[in-house]
């Protein structure tokens, strides 16, 4: 069976790096995939078709990118390593008509910077910024319908955690405003060059069907941050600490009882116990309070 990516092996990866006189850069979190079977599983989980327009972050030498170009219609990759555009120009030359490279920091890229509106994000993400990137792209790229990404296993657990579990936190609530987990699988360290020191997981996130009002989304994110300001304290105590620090302009003594009553939330529970729907009620109550005060 032909390989989906001609670069997915230690020998081929080394050959490309040696040809260009390059080494992997720990500062950029570079760990190249060397198992074509994993590449194929990523593409299968993403359910790619020729109708898809894919954005990839951190293409490296093009290992996953080659497979994406074979499976999808168009691919735009965002890469901040200035040594890699020359590499990608060679390794992906056969697909130049359907491939675009944007040389930039992915967090500084906006929809207008891309040649098309992507409907899927598929990537082996730099682990240090993976959580931030995924939430940021779901929030800012309204065309994005799913993200199938390789992340640190711990991050994948936070992305898919249920209320009441140890991995459920403010980040989970924020991500769940936009998307939900739709499948995942583990990837052993031996599938990378060089092997990372952490466990890895590929997870697929699908955008929620009902679009959320951006103002309510921001208010709900504030509620999540406040609820988890001090994870081990009650909602009332944690949120008081948060607002005393972040919003001294607000009358916390007046606001918190109003929020809990209007949202029908017990102030004595901890933030990890609340479901997304309850955080949304707190967000709505917060908007009502601040609108009234303004």
What is the element string, with H for helices and E for strands? HEHEHEHEEHEHHEEEHHHH
Say which CATH homologous superfamily of the largest domain is assigned: Vaccinia Virus protein VP39
The major sheet is characterized as:
7 strands, mixed
Beta fraction = 15-25%
State the total count of DSSP E strands.
Answer: 9
Average pLDDT, all residues = 94
The dominant shape is elongated
Q: Give the uncertain stretches in residue-range form.
A: none
Architecture overview:
The protein has 294 residues and is of the alpha/beta class. The protein has helices at residues 10-19, 36-46, 63-71, 84-91, 130-140, 153-160, 170-176, 214-227, 235-246, 252-263, 276-293; strands at 32-33, 53-57, 74-79, 99-103, 120-124, 146-152, 179-187, 192-193, 200-207. It is elongated.
Q: Any key phrases for this structure?
A:
alpha/beta, elongated, 294 residues, two-stranded antiparallel sheet, Rossmann fold, single chain, Helicase, Ruva Protein, domain 3, 7-stranded mixed beta sheet
Give the helix/strand layout:
Layout: H1 10-19, E1 32-33, H2 36-46, E2 53-57, H3 63-71, E3 74-79, H4 84-91, E4 99-103, E5 120-124, H5 130-140, E6 146-152, H6 153-160, H7 170-176, E7 179-187, E8 192-193, E9 200-207, H8 214-227, H9 235-246, H10 252-263, H11 276-293
Parallel strand pairs: 2-3, 2-5, 3-4, 5-6
Antiparallel strand pairs: 1-8, 6-9, 7-9
Helix pairs in contact: 7-8, 8-9, 8-11, 10-11
Quick gist of this model?
Helix content is 41%, strand content 17%.
